[in-house]
Amino acid sequence: MSLAPPLLSTSLPGLSLVRQGKVRDLYEIGDRLLMVATDRISAFDYVLGSGIPDKGRVLTQLSNFWFGRTSTIVPNHLVSADVDAFPAELAPHREQLRGRSMLVRKTTPLPVECVARGYISGSGWKDYVATGEVCGVRLPAGLRESDRLPAPLFTPATKADTGHDENISEAAAAAVVGEALLARLKTLTLALYAAGVAHAESCGIILADTKFEFGLTDAGDLLLIDEVMTPDSSRYWPKDQYAPGGAQPSFDKQFVRDYLESIKWNKQPPVPTLPDDVVRRTREKYLDAFTRLTGRALETPNA
User: Fold this and answer.
1) β-strands 148-154, 46-51: how paired?
2) Integer Rg of the chain from CA
């Protein structure tokens, strides 16, 4: 089966483009924002020349699933993901937006990312090897890569528009947002992570770690924003293949990273184009995570 071409950029004439991120395009719609997830994919801090068909739909629809499941823990910014109920000015773009867009409340995003880790992997593993700590938290000696931690950790990070986010201590995060707000963020982050872990485990998936973003409304309400527990913001591992002591197979862009390492790309422009096989296998990983976690088929314009 041939795949539909990926959506690498949006074109919504007459609408105000507020921001273009690595994956999402953000438009202003009156007192709301329209978030559109494209099929762009980034690796090693660069957006690649190839996209992954339906990736933006997976990110959007999985976020919507989690927004629904976690709304009793913390309110979120989602107004609607039903394009047929969107404002009239979006009607001409309905099919481009279907399944990959959200109408959301405006907030001022907090300048700290809230990361929950239940396993030692990724940047946390690198920090542990170097210092025995993660974000200032001393961990037991002798942990192996991908080991389960004694208890989930809250490890904040600075947000970076370009380049890597940087892990910081709770004290450093409190200096940015204040101690009282950081305490709320920590409690909410660990509660959200616990809910995600429990559901993912019931689906045969380990949620090793994930990051959340929060924003404040003009009225001062704290909302969960952006994306929630997607393969782009989380490390998901198949439970039946879990074997600590090294990196784990994952439901994300692992095939993309592996390919880029195999061709010895110097991680500088020009960015490579991905072979069809890498695109297909990566798409399958995203879709597998979505269907396992939600128990439903992905909504597409032709579905």
Assistant:
1) unpaired
2) 19
Asked, as a colleague might, if the bond just before 270 is cis with ω within 30 of 0, I would say yes
pTM of the model: 0.95
Neighbours of 218 (CB within 10 A): 10
Residue 41 lies in a domain: no
Domain-embedded: residue 205? yes
CA 205/CA 199 separation, integer angstroms: 9
Instruction: Specify the number of domains making up the chain.
Output: 1
pLDDT tens digits for range 152-200: 999 999 976 655 678 899 999 999 999 999 999 999 999 999 999 999 9
Q: Specify whether the CB–CB gap between 112 and 184 falls below 8 A.
A: no
Is 85 a domain residue?
no
CATH number for the domain spanning 210: value is 3.30.470.20
Q: How far apart are CA 64 and CA 77, in angstroms?
A: 11
Which distant-in-sequence residues (6+ apart) come within 8 Å of 25 by Cβ? 9, 10, 17, 19, 35, 36, 38
Backbone angles phi, psi at 94, to 5 degrees: -55, -45
